[in-house]
């Protein structure tokens, strides 16, 4: 961190309760719900400097700073959000929200269903990116924000930024779509299904109602996370970090952990199963599968984008094979065909899909440059 960059410091989550029913894409209705969120920086008098950060599959509202001084790690995008950082909280009012169906404070499967007095579990309805955007729009209303200076997200968060610009065109001035895709390929849907099957077939899952049984489908969550984590990394990145290193320096001729990469993946799986909810994982991967903003426009993303009035920044990473640069170029091509202003950056990186969370210098510089221009618009 440079001398001009600082942390947002100690932050406190807030809860917004909504008692107006929300009808979901599935037809299900949430009669009332809570969204947990955090804010950083100060909303200006014109309420024109607000930025929404949309999280990815395993993300949440805690984007930057720490909840208490002893917290081990800061928010998941602390490298990008804070005073003097690309998303500069000296200039912007930044909002991070935990999406519906989440497991970090917003209403989700582990929340108590008022109709039964028990956790929703499998009764919690499937949610889509469109549902999240509508819920986020209600939060914006609550905060008095008519228009976002920018909506920003990576991966599944980028899909939300894109959907925002289509569903609420007058409320988004800039959309930053990072390491994302216009819709999932068959391969990506397949990865998600294998991950879900690991959870669904865990004997401790109990058809999604494991809370009442006092169990956690830990094995399924571990396997789902291990599979997902492989797809978030690049072959070169894994090779550089782990190669074929053996923990003991020699073959053991068995099936226990021998290679360092095996140890790393199991560690990641164990850590994830301690902090994430299995039902939420199922919901998030389904939201990914269903995302297709062109679907209701005769299958055309170009037609969908004709609704938009935002300016766009799209970024991809050369080693990302989960959402490859080709998928970002599809988005850019559709934007150009729809005659929308777009800046595109293809960043050299060895970090794979996870690169959107990293601090590769060209990536940080591109974000800073684009957001400097957004800040100048706000100040004008």
Automatic annotation (TrEMBL):
Cellular localisation: Cytoplasm
Q: Which SUPFAM superfamilies match?
A: alpha/beta-Hydrolases (SSF53474)
Please indicate if the UniProt record lists Mitochondrion as a keyword. Answer: no
- GO molecular function annotation: homoserine O-acetyltransferase activity
> Where is the chain membrane-spanning?
none
Q: Which family does it belong to?
A: Belongs to the AB hydrolase superfamily. MetX family.
Q: Which NCBIfam families match?
A: homoserO_Ac_trn, PRK00175.1
Q: How does it assemble?
A: Homodimer.
Q: What does this protein do?
A: Transfers a succinyl group from succinyl-CoA to L-homoserine, forming succinyl-L-homoserine.
Q: What is this protein called?
A: Homoserine O-succinyltransferase
């Amino acid at each position: 961190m440079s001398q001009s960059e600082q942390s947002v410091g100690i932050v406190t989550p807030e809860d917004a309760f909504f008692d107006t029913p929300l009808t979901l894409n599935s037809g299900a209705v949430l009669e009332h719900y809570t969204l947990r969120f955090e804010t950083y920086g100060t909303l200006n008098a014109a309420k024109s400097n607000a930025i929404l950060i949309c999280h990815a599959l395993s993300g949440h509202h805690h984007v930057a700073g720490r909840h208490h001084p002893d917290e081990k790690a800061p928010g998941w995008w602390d490298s990008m959000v804070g005073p003097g950082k690309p998303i500069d909280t000296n200039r912007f009012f930044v909002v991070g929200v935990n999406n519906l169906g989440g497991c970090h404070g917003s209403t989700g499967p582990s929340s108590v269903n008022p109709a039964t007095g028990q956790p929703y579990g499998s009764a919690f309805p499937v949610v889509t990116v469109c549902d999240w955007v509508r819920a986020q729009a209600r939060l914006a209303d609550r905060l008095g924000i008519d228009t976002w200076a920018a909506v920003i997200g990576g991966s599944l968060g980028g899909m939300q930024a894109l959907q925002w610009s289509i569903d609420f065109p007058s409320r988004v001035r800039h959309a930053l779509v990072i390491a994302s895709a216009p819709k999932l390929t068959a391969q990506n849907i397949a990865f998600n299904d294998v991950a879900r099957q690991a959870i669904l077939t865990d004997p401790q899952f109990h058809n999604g109602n494991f809370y009442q049984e006092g169990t956690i489908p830990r094995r399924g969550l571990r396997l789902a996370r291990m599979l997902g984590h492989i797809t978030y990394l690049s072959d070169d990145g894994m090779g550089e970090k782990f190669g074929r290193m053996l923990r003991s320096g020699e073959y053991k001729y068995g099936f226990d952990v021998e290679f360092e990469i095996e140890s790393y993946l199991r560690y990641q799986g164990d850590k994830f199963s301690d902090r994430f909810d299995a039902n939420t994982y199922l919901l998030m991967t389904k939201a990914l599968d269903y995302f297709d903003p062109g679907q209701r426009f005769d299958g055309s993303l170009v037609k969908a984008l004709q609704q938009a009035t935002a300016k766009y920044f799209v970024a991809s990473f050369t080693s990302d094979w989960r959402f490859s640069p080709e998928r970002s170029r599809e988005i850019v091509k559709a934007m150009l065909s729809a005659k929308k202003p777009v800046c595109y950056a293809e960043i050299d990186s060895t970090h794979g899909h996870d690169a959107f969370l990293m601090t590769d210098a060209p990536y940080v510089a591109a974000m800073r440059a684009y957001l400097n221009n957004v800040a100048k618009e706000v100040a004008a």
